[in-house]
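User: Hello, can you help with two protein structures?

Assistant: Certainly.
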Amino acid sequence: KQWYQRRVAITAGNGRAKNSWHNPPSLANPIGYCDDFERLPDHEQEDNNAHLIVKRSWDIALVPLKQVPMNLFLMYMIGNTLSLFPIIMTVMMFKSPFSSLFSYKTTFQKLEGSHHILQKMVFILSNFILIAMALYKCNAMGLLPIHPSDWIAFASPKTRMEFAVGGPVLMS
């Protein structure tokens, strides 16, 4: 124990042989420290709280837009073949935006106030962007019936406008 106390006294650098462990030297206040700190007024705290609510609502509104690059990468990686993995990923690309569209009221219900109109519109629009990307992927895979040959079963047969009947065969 004496060795440790002597080491503290030596490394303290003050040249005295007394123990500086219990009496640390007084330090100057750090930059920006103020002794006469007063509490912020309540209106500034309310403004800060409202700012945080708006920031949180924008964070929630931009979540679907943050999924766009990931979905683009997945669309590239899964290809256009019809197999189990690409079909599952395409179904998930549809499921996520539809489920968030059906639950957008509960998503924004966590936040107080009714000033989230623009954020709700951005949230809904970005989910429609994700749905459009999923539709494009279905089109690229050939799952959307957009060609006339896809609807051949529902086409009515053509009616003949004229008939050609052969005459008797003349043998000479």
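That covers the first. Now for the second protein you mentioned:
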Amino acid sequence: MMEGFIAKLSNISNRDLVNEGAQEFCLKLNTKSNRKKLVRALYGVSRNRLDLLPFHARLVRTLSPILPDIPTDLFTLLKKEFIYHLRKKDQNNLETKVKNIRFIGELCKFEMCEKSDALWCLRVLLEQFTHHNIEIACSLVECCGRYLFRSTDTHLKTNHLLDQMMRKKSCPQSRYKTDNYGGECLLLL
């Protein structure tokens, strides 16, 4: 039965289906092992299906009052993967890195992770603002930058990080052209 539910996750594409899925999980499938399987299934979403991330984050948000371990476990997995890719510094798997940071951004927008965690990710990416980190940082800003910028408690920090991003973009010593990334991200705000 749980396998059928996990198979349905790839077809969740609106709020009503998210609510039905959350209700079904809570009423019929709520066991500790199924919660772990659900977290693994959400974490393992295909890197080509970025359109599912907002709906999966909404599902996590809907389940969180009843099952608070799901957002915690999911964010822990995402943060570990983020740190792994950051330390590895390879130039492969860009789609996986973007999926990971977008999922963190969606969880941040649904308040399933701390805003400070998303800002920490952005700050770390700006410290090593080269290669894939440029696109990953822009994906995070595109995903939850407006939310962080307009929140009263994170406005100043976000503004500072965005200014730092634009300074790095326009730095003449930069070997990488970031015009396409940085400008588009800031226009979204």
